[in-house]
Amino acid sequence: MANKEKISEELLLEEEVLKQSEIILFNDDVNTFDHVISTLIDVCEHTPEQAEQCSLIVHYNGKCTVKTGDYDDLKPRCSRLLQAGLSAEIV
Pseudo-torsion of CA 66, 71, 74, 78, nearest 10°? Predict the structure, then answer.
């Protein structure tokens, strides 16, 4: 049983170390679905289907995680989303 507990502890520790940041996209009354979709494809490297799904989630829920990863990778992506007129932040 002690071996099982040790493995569980190691997995929990590993999860804490691998914590990643997220870009959250927020709904607004300005941007069109087409603009949001094309921006997500360009900036976040989404497939058209992913981008469409994210745009619908943002529209109906008010926000959506659009990209997860290392902060250093997400920072320039978030800046590009903001430059495109979208509302986004890294958490």
Answer: 90
Token pair 């992913």 is at which residue? Answer: 50
| pTM, 2 dp | 0.80
CB atoms within 10 A of CB 66: 27
- Interval 70-88: pLDDT, tens: 999 999 999 999 999 999 9
Count how many residues are written for the chain.
91
d(CA 83, CA 81): 5
Domains, in order of start, for the chain: 19-90 (3.30.1390.10)
